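Checklist before submission:
- one chain only
- standard amino acids only
- sequence pasted in full

Submission:
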Amino acid sequence: MDLSVIIPVFNEEANVEPVCREIRQTLEPLEKNFEIIFVNDGSNDNTRSTLDSLAQEDDKIKVVHLRRNFGQTAAITAGVDHASGDVIVMLDGDLQNDPHDIPRLLKKLEENFDVCSGWRKTRRDNFFTRTVPSRIANMLISVISGVRLRDYGCTLKAYRREVLLGVRLYGEMHRFIPVYAAWQGAKVTEIPVSHRPRIHGKSKYGLGRTFKVVLDLLVIKFMASFSQNPIYVFGGFGLVNCFLSLLTFTVMVYYKYLGGKSFVETPLPLVAVLFFLVGIISILMGFIAEVQMRTYYESQGKSTYIVGEKRNFIVTS
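Returned file contents:
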């Protein structure tokens, strides 16, 4: 299979048929062996029956029905797990992504890139509730991850299959796939793509999603930087608190003998004990995290590195 197109949908009964038709019209002239995978994320309208009808009419259309609504990240993961194409393209099922941009994404991959991300240069969304939070989130992700993209939230992206192998996503982390790929050595690029106003259905996104994105970003940054040595985070925080405890104790003793104030006249003893306890607890949490990480890698035989290419090695079975 040359190409797999994954479309996660939730309550998009009016959109799945036209988006499917546009994708077919776009891909058929490319002379590639392709499949279109719809992942029904627990829709409670007629999306399920509409997809089943499309799949019955065309064997290139494949449908995965999830038992309930698990969220877009889980739906994308299900699509990737069921895809067999060498290249995987993802786009939304609400017709706001233009399927006619897919050949342009594929052409970029032919220029020796591993990931090509769509950039909705001219967005057709509400400026204050969608565009502004998106820009803030994109800026934060770029700064913290070190991977500079203008539009992480655009689902329209193309990936070489190998960069998705071993990537497990949770929460709202589907937007961070280019970050994972770049951290593993993939070449990531971005091109402007069309963005159309929504005609049918309602948007599933809101302002509250921005806060989830920030929290997920902190998680992946921690996993990327400290997954093999979490003691550096917990232990470092613990040592800082122990130092502050010692400093507070010194000030407390100074006031006792040189400042004319007894221990009970200031809150310093309580503050010193609090800093000390937080420091010790943080260090102990670091030890527990170290044990868990070693169990994670060793029990599953996971490697702490990824090999890019090898030369002059004999392949053995």
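Reviewer check: The CA atoms of residues 82 and 265 lie 68 Å apart.
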